Amino acid sequence: MENLQIKTFAQYKKAYKKSVKDPETFWEEIANTFTWHKKWDRTLEWDFRKPEVKWFEGGKLNITENCLDRHLEKLGNKTAIIWEPNDPDEESRYISYRQLFVKVSHFANVLKNNGIKKGDKVCIYMPMIPELAIAMLACARIGAVHSIVFAGFSSAAIARRINDSECKMLITANEVYRGSKKVNLKEICDKALEDTPSVESVIVYRRTVEPTPMKEGRDRFWFDELQKVDKDCPAEVMDAEDMLFILYTSGSTGKPKGMVHTTGGYMVGTTYTFQNVFQLEKNDVYWCTADIGWITGHSYIIYGPLAAGATTVMFEGIPSYPDYGRFWEICEKLKVTHFYTAPTAIRSLAKQPLKFVEKHDLSSLKVLGSVGEPINEEAWHWYNDNIGKGNCPVVDTWWQTETGAIMISPLAGITPTRPTFATLPLPGVQPALMDDNGEEITNLNEKAEGRLAIKFPWPSIARTIYGDHQRYKEVYFSTYENKYFTGDGSYRDATGNYRITGRVDDIVIVSGHNLGTATIENAIDEHEGVVESAVVGYPHDVKGNALYAFVILYDQTEPSDQLRKEIRDLVSSTVGPIAKPEKIQFVKSLPKTRSGKIMRRILRKIASNDTSNLGDTSTLLNPEVVDDIIGGAVITK
Ligand code: 6R9
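Above: inputs. Below: predicted complex with 6R9.
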């Protein structure tokens, strides 16, 4: 890959031009730098109208051979993963590429020994411990499809995801440490498993010594299983288009979308973007603070960094434990060079006294990254000034679960940065800014605002929604003819730099977590006192957005704080604690259009306490309710 690494802005421009003029040759050259059992037959086949995208079809490979085996000769003793525990007094773990290779192969045999074969789906619900990385790579080693569910989700959310893709196995841990708290994951899993007929076996890693109830015939301990198998596990040969994993993301309906990523294109896309955006050098230590349960963790803690032979840090804890200096303490301790986090974390740390930063030597840092939501100007400057000391390029990386890899971002130290701008598309990415009439705004020399679409496939695009190709087509390929629609609004300056302004659909990003408002409404509506509800986002200092629920009650239901608590608890148990509405207002009715649709635009304005101009309300069936709601609004500022 060395010679394909972009080092200057002129090289970026050249690579970009080539990637547009001849995308196939461009990506072939990159794909050629990986280990394949057999070269592909066709580089790209695509039709966004169907939609269908295939990259490197007929090519045979295994992604773990690219993340592990091929590094053994030169990098065998290099640290692949540094694990930093929740408790700073517990020891960090350093796992070399050779050790990781052995652990992955060994655990892959556990999967096989428990009846898992190529194509089977395995749900992983684990805390941020190395065994999570080992479990996911072990799946990939034998061609099983992992479906990782963030270990903060509720039993009901796990069950929904397991059932959607009919997972045969669940891998979990008994407990997880999260700051000063301990959460019993196994208990949450047991509850989920009451309603998941496809799961035949459960593997439990013991993170703590607490006694763990196990179900006879179904549950097995990780360590016991390892004793039964040997350590040698040749990699399953996969087609480039074979499924690598499913990862669920929120949608505009109540049902989560299982985004399907395949093997070859995903590997090429994540590795290429990792190397070029972050510009890692040989002995660098890279730390992405995301959870592996999200796409950022998949692509930029595990697959991208390991395929690139980097040292990647995994952190089990939270930024505020034992105090708000924890991130900076770890940067100092591990001599982190590349630090990649989310705006919500930056905003919450920026609120703390600077002494938490100043206590620590951050001189090892070279590059700072941001991902997950728009970064506001203040947070950008705080990050740049206090963490980067004005010396570290800040890469604001825009991408999505669906895109698999970073799409729009500066290349560290190469692309001129501009606060709050994700700047320019990476080579291979062809954005299109769309106006209100659905036409592309093509003049790159004039500033413009619109919705963001992509007009040509890139290797790591998700291929479908698991089990629902029709929905994939409707959500991403029906808004604009022959283009992928991102769901994001965007502004472009007169030099072609993009700023992502936020979601234009019914998804709200709270503390970096994507939440579909429909899922939360469904949960609220399950309360026996509730007729109907509407949930919208409103700006929040730290979380980026918070949730505001407008709830209609049955006549006989008494509005009360107790009821608010019950509604929050219900959301917490059906969706997860992160989805709890900050504000709940009981209303008589909701503003609806003549076709019966809730006019969320108006509710968003009310929730944001911005009611001076509500825009056109003439299509409302019941305009009189608007004043009633404003009169009773829980004021947010
Ligand atoms: C990687 C990830 C995707 C949505 C995306 C957008 C928002 C992500 C951003 C950003 C502004 C950035 N988003 N990165 N907005 N600037 N640098 O976060 O994937 O969880 O699927 O979320 O996040 O709205 O559409 P995912």
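Residues 511-632 form a domain with the GMP Synthetase; Chain A, domain 3 fold (CATH 3.30.300.30).
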